[in-house]
From TrEMBL:
It catalyses: [E2 ubiquitin-conjugating enzyme]-S-ubiquitinyl-L-cysteine + [acceptor protein]-L-cysteine = [E2 ubiquitin-conjugating enzyme]-L-cysteine + [acceptor protein]-S-ubiquitinyl-L-cysteine. This is RING-type E3 ubiquitin transferase (cysteine targeting). Pathway: Protein modification; protein ubiquitination. One of its GO terms (cellular component) is peroxisomal membrane. PANTHER family: PEROXISOME BIOGENESIS FACTOR 2. SUPFAM superfamilies: RING/U-box. Pfam families: Pex2_Pex12. Its main location: membrane. It comes from Culex pipiens (House mosquito). It is an enzyme of class 2 (transferase). Belongs to the pex2/pex10/pex12 family. The lineage of its organism: Eukaryota, Metazoa, Ecdysozoa, Arthropoda, Hexapoda. It is found in: Peroxisome membrane.
Length: 275
């Protein structure tokens, strides 16, 4: 049983599905040919897109009188509306016209007048699509400009069924969004330097004695915190050398900072002077 009623959301979703199906097909084609020598097929990109779009159009509109997106939502065109002349016009407006535009932009870049003409036509089509969208919202018929020009109406195959909506996915998204907001609020106020130090002290099996050691500074001396060549060497009272920014940053973040090698703890912050 066929009916004239098709929900607006189904008609809009079918257009989005058609766009996604086309992008997926082209992506698969590019994944296949990307292993070929570079530049071998790049000059034929408009023709490759034309073949992909033509294949989709042939197996959907020409054979089933409905795009793949429409078929997924149980929508179709009436066969008596898609006459042979309208089929040719539909192919030209949806496939051939896009190929001609891509061909001009890909191979005729030197013709500035042609490029300006294409830009002007694109702007006009954008305005017409904008106006047609508001007309569609008011009438609920002919969601695309091509459908309006060719006078094609959508038909529902399985009747005017109410679209069912599941809220389980929405609930999961709301819970996850709330959890992310909680993390975004709590993470900045947690002192991870102090937390890491306390966990390290808690899990340590034995306590190392805190002894003041002799500081040795050489040409190849490295910071014990970042393990890079030391910059502006400083120490905290033990025999290990830190970069100025490594030691200063840790002391500012955690007043109880301990040497990450010997666990020495003191309030000393002095520059190392080579002896």
């Amino acid at each position: 049983m066929k009916t004239n009623f098709v929900p607006r959301v189904n008609q809009l979703d079918s257009i989005q599905l058609d766009n996604e199906i086309g992008n997926i097909l082209k992506e698969q084609i590019y994944n296949v040919i990307r292993n070929l020598p570079p530049g071998l097929l790049s000059r034929f990109q408009p023709e490759i897109n034309l073949l992909a779009s033509s294949a989709l159009w042939n197996f959907s509109i020409r054979q089933s009188f409905a795009t793949f997106g429409q078929q997924m939502l149980s929508i179709t065109y009436e066969k008596d509306q898609l006459t042979p002349e309208k089929l040719k016009a539909h192919y030209f407006l949806t496939v051939a016209l896009a190929y001609l535009k891509e061909l001009a932009q890909f191979r005729l870049t030197g013709y500035m007048a042609l490029q300006r003409t294409i830009t002007t036509l694109e702007n006009c089509l954008t305005c017409l699509n904008f106006l047609n969208f508001f007309r569609f919202l008011r009438t609920g018929r002919k969601p695309s400009l091509v459908d309006y020009v060719l006078r094609l109406d959508h038909r529902s195959i399985d009747g005017a069924k109410r679209r069912t909506i599941g809220y389980s996915y929405m609930t999961r998204e709301l819970i996850w969004a709330g959890f992310m907001e909680l993390l975004g609020f709590t993470i900045p106020i947690v002192n991870y330097h102090a937390l890491k130090r306390r966990l390290r002290n808690l899990l340590r099996l034995e306590v190392r004695p805190q002894e003041v050691q002799r500081i040795v500074l050489g040409v190849e001396s490295k910071c014990v915190y970042c393990n890079e060549r030391v910059t502006l060497p400083h120490h905290m009272g033990c025999g290990h050398v830190f970069c100025y920014y490594c030691l200063k940053g840790n002391l500012l973040a955690d007043s109880g900072f301990q040497c990450n090698v010997c666990d020495f703890k003191s309030g000393v912050f002095e520059r190392v002077v080579a002896g």
